[in-house]
Amino acid sequence: MKILKRMLLLIAVILIILVISNYPKLNILAGYSAKNTASSVFLGQRTLEFTDKTDNNFSPVNLATDLLDIKNKFVVSSALGLLTRKAVYREGLGAVLTLNGNDETASYLVPKRANADNNTPFPYGNAPQKDTVFGNINYKKLRETVGAVFGKNKSRAVLVIYKDQLVLEKYADGFDKDSRILGWSMTKSLMGTVFGVLQHQNKINIYNKAPIASWQKDARKNITINNLLQMNSGLEWDENYDEISDATKMLFLERDMTKMQAEKPLQYKTNASWNYSSGTSNLLSGILRDHFKTHQEYLDFWYTNLIDKIGMNSMVVESDLAGNYVASSYAWATARDWAKFGLLYLHNGNWNGEALFTKKWVDYITTPSPTSNGTYGAHFWLNAEKQFKDVPKNMYFADGYQGQRVYVLPDEDLVIVRFGLSWFEENIFLKGVLESII
Known about the structure:
Blueprint: H1 2-42, H2 48-54, E1 64-69, E2 74-79, E3 83-90, E4 94-97, H3 139-147, E5 155-162, E6 165-171, E7 180-182, H4 186-200, H5 225-229, H6 246-253, H7 278-291, H8 295-307, E8 316-317, E9 331-334, H9 335-346, E10 350-351, E11 354-355, H10 359-365, E12 381-382, E13 396-400, E14 404-409, E15 414-420, H11 426-436
Antiparallel strand pairs: 1-2, 2-3, 3-4, 5-6, 5-15, 7-9, 8-9, 10-11, 12-13, 13-14, 14-15
């Protein structure tokens, strides 16, 4: 009996040690499940069952158990019964993880939104387009190419827009033209574009030094907004989603996500080393916040001067607990509205006769960032070194986790949108679409 008691005590001690040592991982595991589930249900209009079966069915997130309260709009997720996290939904700002009980009842500002134009045909409104058949498109090959990235490749939506006409649109079961889908890091390109709009309005100069007070007494004072947009500030940052990292701690443990990157020291010389950083994108969101006199102006500008301006009325950019847009990761919209974003760039910033920015900005974001080996511009990804060997070098794209994409092909007058849950053979897919247009 004594031996049994000692063994049970030893097992208990081991379990306690394991729980304590893995507590940070359990915290992030439960946090991911709660946040993703709340956004999926309340923004994406999906069921808990669908979300658990599709979006949360990968290890270790599938170890979490989710409890949904539809009436009060929150989700509580439990990590193996050892730790729970709660995400609440706030109309206009999306879902957010709470850090204490006060967060659930705290007041918050919401952005002012414009009404959707449901009378003007797509893409400048949301009404149906007139059927247009192009004689130079092999529609059979186009359908086969698009169909190939569904099924095992887990695509959820693919749109092909040629000469402003929606020539192909396909959705997985459970999705349609009205389904909001998370763009993940495509939000970075959206946020970068806000700087482009302000630059065009002569309200900001991206070549100025970043206005971060804590940097003014060391070498970080020389970092410009341009360096941040090009991801070559030289600041330390660990963008690793498989472990406890700067990125995961920021997204699941921070109240104000704009501050974490600002607190990092220089790891490399500025403008001499490229390092992809979600912290940098949220730092830029904070710089935008400080650019405006009030928080309401900051919240409104993204919509009044960009998102709603081009009719992306389905879009919701989620915020952190401090009310800052999570520019690294959390914009939701329909595939059609994401396509409008690509069309804005295809037309060099001109939207139905109004210039939100000009080709000068497009040239800027498509110029390779120093030391990025031609793969990255200013919060957009590039094909300058023929990463996709069968695709034109001047193709550029917004890129999100699990293969969320908005591709812009200027010479071909094409915008291609893909959403899904896994990576896919992009070069083969894009090559097939291009070969469909004779």
